[in-house]
Every structure is written in C-alpha cells, then in structure tokens.
Please model this.
Amino acid sequence: MARKRIVAGNWKMNMTIEEGRNWLRSFSRHHDLAQLVEEVIIFPPFTALAALANDEQGNLLQWGGQNLHEAGAGAYTGEISGPMIRDCHAGWVLVGHSERRTLFQEQDDLISRKMRRAIDSDLQPILCVGETLEERESGQFMEVVARQVVRGLADFPQHALDRLVIAYEPVWAIGTGKTASPQDAQDMHQHIRETLSRLYTQAVASSIRILYGGSVKPENAASLFACPDIDGGLVGGASLDPDQFAALLGIR
Model:
C-alpha cells in the first residue's frame, strides 16, 4: 500500500492567536484542498494551539505541539506535557527538532525518552534528524543521521511503529534558503529507510513515512516530493504564508 503523504507546517515562535485565526481564514479560501489526500498538520506555538485546534476541529487540518517534556507531569516550570498537548485537541508532536538539539542541547537519550512519552501520551511523534554543515563537509553525515535514528528510537515500543514518522532536516538548510538537492535528499531518505530495516524489518521500514525539511517551498517541492523515499515535507517559513502552504499541498 502506498504511503500517504504528509505536509506539516512548523510555525516555530510565530503567530499570536489572532494572527493564527487570520491565517486559517485565508487558508480556508482554498476550497480545492478538501479533495487532497495528504495529511496536513500544523504545529503552532503552544499559546495558540488550543484556540486554533478548537476553531478548526473536524476539518482539513490536524494539530500538534512543537515539543514536549519527558515526564507526564511534575515540577518543571515552563514545560509542556504530553497530556496537556492532547488536552489542546492535538494529536501530533515534534521531537528532536534541530533547533531543540542545537539551541537547547537536547541529546539523543533525552529525545528517546520524549519519543516514548509521546506514545504513552497517545500522541503521534515526528522524530527529527539531520546533520550540521560541519558534519556534512567532513563526510560524517550518513553516520550522524543513522545514529540519531537508532538512538532516538532506543526505547520506542514496537507496537507503535505504525505511528512513527521521521523528518530529515539538514541543519544547514533550515531557514537559510539552501535546500539539499533532490538526489542528496533521496540518498539520505533511502539511508534512513535502510537503517530502519536493520532495526526492524524491511516491511516495517517500507511503511514508515519520512519527510524532508529544510527551506521547502513551492518552487522546490515538486522535485523533492517526486523522490521515491520522500513522503512529504516539514515546512518552516513557507508555512507562515497560507497561500504558499496551500500551493505545497497541490504539488504532485
């Protein structure tokens, strides 16, 4: 069975509730989107998540949190738990985004615990992996990404593999306007799938969806989405523009 494409928008630290509602109003004008088969997920800031997900429940979009704490509850001032995300009418969560790894020093063992917490909280996690420019130029990038996959899934329950999604986002391409070439992206996605087949089985690896992230926009998405191992995109800047984001959904 063909893997169903995902197009996900990560708004990062952008959009107030009112700005998000304006985005939804603009996005909803694209009536043809109802015919599309993609899963479309928006990751707004936590301050807007509940309001926007409640406004849009039952329609085209699904909703997720940009991060979660490894614990289900406790004395962790400023943190967000999995059950809190579920309480916002959201079913997804990003784990291990490169900005969490680089700016907040999140390591693979913590990311592994967060992946398990996501499943225990009945959330569908997207595990983000990717190499820095230094790691790519030194020739270590394949090893780095495989290690992130293996360690990030160290405590992931096998009964939940059908809920696993991975996003490959080369750090050097995020927010820079640079994008991996379609061949480079395909090579890495194939490498991730081969890593998954060694961890599990070929059948499991073939069923897991792997997204590309890193300056994805309408101008380059068609060539990326045409690659056999790329199952959609994790979109940053272009997701802030409802028309650009809608254009990405129409690409075949």
